[in-house]
Design brief:
alpha/beta, Heat Shock Protein 90, 3 domains, 12 helices, 10 strands
Length: 361
């Protein structure tokens, strides 16, 4: 969004108890390309108008008629509505400035002021507020991701512990019992006792392989990204009931370990979401090189979704899978784009630098 567009969209509430001054400020605000959300003459009136007009910024005179001055009104507006306030005043007394600082204003303009000063302060205040909003959103997302990482870590530890106890533990116990029986009845041990031990050992080895593959497919390290994605696609298709087509450009060079891992986990999360929500029949995965970029696309023909609502949930820390995908893309210097429309499927596209193992630091 360019500056002119931002100015047209921004709504400014003017709080000034001198009618002529208020009208003059309103004209200046409109001349700068902003919208005037309204004019209030008292602090109580300004607070009431906040909920109705939902302005992006408040120009607040410190000295107001009525029981509530501008500083008190600004404090309520900042704490209850998180709307930036810029003070207007003809007084520059130290005690007034100290009180005003406590409300964390986004600007302080002494009257009378030229239009150039007003333009600069408004632009900086709006920019600072947007930056703070982005920082707050990022902080919430990081907190949600951190909590999710700890939860997943504990869930995975619990799952591995159960697998080891219930599967491998029982297999080893059975082998121990058979060995004890064989030692006790050396001359009378059943002929198939050793065959049973071999079968139990084979089952235990298969359980170990399955457990290790679930944690990290060995083929991702041994064979590379394309074979690992093909295996993942086949596994997901068999469980999800959809058909998967995997297209990729053959390359003699292996991508860096960080990129291969990020790609694998992003596709894994995308296929998991398709299995759970999309009701898709066809899924297409493509991996290719475009100049200096690697492009990975996962596309389905499912029921689709509202991307704006999904982004809102992700911003609030609800869609943690999406946040995890975006975080992985960022960590490898890439960007993740998710597009969809209800009834028309969805597309997940990752673009990141084409970095081979030989190029990796």
């Amino acid at each position: 969004m360019n500056k002119a567009t931002a100015n047209r969209l921004a709504k400014i509430l003017i709080v000034e108890d001198e009618v002529i001054v208020a009208r003059d400020i309103a004209q200046q605000v409109q001349a700068l390309g902003y919208q005037v959300a309204g004019i209030a003459s008292q602090g109580e009136q300004a607070i009431a108008m906040i909920g109705q007009q939902q302005p992006d910024l408040v120009l607040m005179d410190i000295q107001l008629a009525g029981a509530m001055d501008g500083i008190t009104a600004a404090h309520i507006i900042r704490t209850q509505y998180a709307i930036p306030v810029v003070f207007l005043t003809a007084f520059a007394a130290d005690d007034v400035l100290e009180r005003a600082k406590l409300t964390e204003p986004f600007g302080y303009i002494l009257k009378p002021f030229p239009e150039r000063i007003l333009s600069t302060v408004l632009a900086m205040a709006l920019y600072k507020h947007q930056a703070e909003a982005r920082l707050l959103t990022t902080t919430r997302q990081l907190k949600a991701l951190s909590m999710r990482v700890l939860q997943v870590q504990e869930q995975e530890r619990r799952r591995v512990a159960v697998e080891l106890h219930d599967e491998l533990g029982q297999a080893l116990t059975a082998i121990k019992i058979n060995l004890q029986l064989g030692e006790r009845f050396k001359d009378k041990a059943p002929a198939d006792l050793y065959e049973e031990n071999l079968r139990i050992v084979e089952d235990a080895l298969q359980q170990v392989r399955t457990l290790a593959t679930a944690l990290r497919p060995s083929m991702l390290d041994d064979l590379g990204l394309a074979p690992a994605l093909k295996w993942l696609a086949e596994q997901s298709a068999s469980r999800g009931g959809f058909e998967v087509k995997f297209n990729h450009e053959r390359s003699l060079a292996r991508l860096s370990s960080e990129i291969e891992t990020a790609c694998f986990r992003i596709v894994q999360e995308a296929l998991t979401n398709i299995s759970r929500h999309a009701q898709a029949q066809q899924v297409e995965i493509s991996l290719r090189r475009e100049g200096s970029e690697m492009v990975l696309v996962v596309r389905d023909d499912g029921c689709g979704f509202d991307p704006a609502a999904m982004c809102e949930r992700a911003a609030n820390g609800a869609s943690l899978g999406v946040l995890g995908m975006q975080e992985r893309a960022t960590l490898v210097g890439g960007r993740l784009d998710i597009s969809s429309e209800p009834g028309h499927g969805s597309t997940v596209e990752l673009r990141c630098p084409w970095l081979t193992q030989a190029d990796a630091p």
